[in-house]
Design a protein that fits this description.
177 residues; 2 domains; 6 helices
């Protein structure tokens, strides 16, 4: 009986370990490809081939996914995955902006979000502008979501938009990601 108990306990422990490793892979697996790219940009000071629009797309998709969670709860590891992806994309944007700032000449015009120049959208020269835009987007989307959170059509549309933004990336090559 004692050997059976130990085997059962070991089996349960193994299943728990698999469960937690799976959760960790789910939460952090999506950001793993960005680590080498971040390190390469930091090491070489070269942002060539990097698309800041991939960051924009993933930031918007994950903000919308978090808002969707408030309307229709889904698994917590997927919610955590959104926060981890947002943090990672902010790190990528930060290293991109910091690296690009080193190449700005004194005669170059500083581009900021508050200038509201559509031709320079998401091409700003300071990191704060990216944060300002994301804050504005999040507040605006939250203000729309809160009063409509009990409307099933809106909630499903919100979820669709979150998935749609991520699907936009799947249609492109992975070059530059």
């Amino acid at each position: 009986m004692d050997a059976h108990f130990d085997a059962t306990a070991v089996k349960q422990l193994g299943l728990q370990a698999v469960k937690y490793v799976s959760i960790l892979l789910m939460v952090f697996g999506g950001v793993v490809p960005y680590v080498p790219q971040y390190l390469q940009i930091k090491r070489t000071g070269n942002t060539e081939g990097f698309s800041q629009y991939v960051c924009l797309t993933l930031l918007l998709a994950n903000i919308l996914r978090i808002l969707f969670w408030f309307c229709k709860h889904f698994e917590l590891p997927l919610l955590a995955q959104s926060f981890v992806m947002i943090f990672t994309m902010l790190c990528m944007v930060h290293i991109y902006v910091r690296t690009r700032q080193k190449t700005i000449l004194p005669t170059d015009k500083i581009r900021r979000f508050i200038d509201l120049e559509s031709a320079h959208f998401w091409k700003w020269t300071d990191f704060l502008s990216y944060l300002q835009f994301l804050l504005l987007f999040t507040v605006a989307a939250s203000c729309i979501t809160y009063p409509l959170s009990d409307q099933p059509v809106f909630v499903e549309l919100l979820g669709f938009l979150a998935v749609f933004f991520e699907a936009l990336l799947a249609r492109r090559s992975s070059t530059g990601i």
